[in-house]
Amino acid sequence: MTGADRLGDPGRSALRRLRTTQRIVPQQAREQNRTLLLQTVFAEGPLSRAELARRSGISAVSVSDLAGELVESGLLVETGTQRHSGAGKPAVLLSVREDAFRIVALHLSDAVRFIGVVTDLRGTVLHRASVPIDGRVGEEAIEALLGLAQQLVDAAEGPVLGIGIGTPGIVVDRRIVRRADVRRWFDLDLAARVTERLGLPAYIENDGNAAALGMYTHDPEGRASLLGILLTYGVGAGLIVGGALVEGDRFAAGEIGHLSVQPDGPLCDCGRRGCLQRLVDTARVRERLAAVPEQERDGVLAEAGAVLGTAIAPMLAVTGVGSVFVSGPDDVVTGTFLGACRDAVRARVQPSGEDELVVEAVHDIEDLVLVGVSALVLEARLGLA
Ligand SMILES: [Zn+2]
User: Fold this and answer.
1) Which of 44-48, 350-354, 362-366 holds the top average pLDDT?
2) Integer Cα distance of 284 and 290 in angstroms
3) Which are the contacts of 347, defined by CB distance < 8 A and separation ≥ 6?
4) Predicted model pTM
5) Closest to 318 in 3D by CA, of 251, 255, 236, 246
6) How far, in Å, is the centroid of ligand 1 from the Cα of 170?
7) What is the DSSP code string of 194-230?
8) How far is the CA of 236 from the centre of ligand 1 (A)?
9) What domains, with CATH codes, occur in the chain?
10) Rounded to the nearest whole angstrom, what is the distance from the C-alpha of residue 260 to the centroid of ligand 1?
11) pLDDT tens digits for 73-99?
């Protein structure tokens, strides 16, 4: 990472908001205006109250009232005055106080350690910590992650807005890990466990979805839709269409690891043959790479990339999504792997517009998941993302 240790691009992330399906009832109007005002300052500040009224469409009287409330709560701060050529006294500018709150974000998908950060509201990393997993599963693994979360909250040196956690497995309602075989967690109310221990709201998301949210937040092109593929444990996917994360029935969208793509392929733990997970999982690809001479390595990578491309092509055709970001370790997601994946996609899917279908690699898996779950905390607690 260059420059400040920062998750994502703050300028970018400030402008992107996840679309929610909640309806606003009249008594929520004030709350909604408060959120809109905060969003506008977060994305476009520093701004004067008059400019804020103009950009948000909220009346000047309401802006003044709400801004006063937000300054008092410490979320907004007056940061000087605006020079202008006209007469009259200069306008006072309002900014979001980035250190008003901390966010704690955890990433549980690494094979050897649980990783966490403390950030400010803009994603600047103030503290990083990790704890070795050492093969722990079930209750012991929960204790390890709670210990890490506690350590981060203790290091936060400020009020913590909430805790976001990206984990392998199926996650329901941003709270319950329905199943994460690799950790031997089943119907685990992880959010409740975290809140019970730390007294803070917690938001849990599947790692593939969290990574997709991170990719969305990061994306310099500002695409509204994308398919994120996460190659860590098996194969995870997160789909964002029109700014909304697709969760699917039973929150199982993106669980593509046991999609059988080669009926006569190798037997998988699930009993099917030729599961995607069996064919393109990082560990499996590395096994095959280790078993072939140097000159055949590219062949192995191209084959794996083509299998992935073939599997995701129908997903792109159905959703009309034109951009795929593949996140995985550099020794697997190589130019050869990616090229084969892209070729397989382009050979199968008609692009919806003039632009070619995009298949690119993204790095910093760890940070993408952390960005994604931080965005969930910001959205859930302040209406920001
Ligand atoms: Zn399987």
Assistant:
1) 44-48
2) 10
3) none
4) 0.81
5) 246
6) 15
7) HHHHHSS-EEEEEHHHHHHHHHHHH-TT--S-EEEEE
8) 13
9) 10-96 (1.10.10.10), 102-210+368-382 (3.30.420.40), 222-363 (3.30.420.40)
10) 7
11) 888 999 877 766 566 677 889 998 888
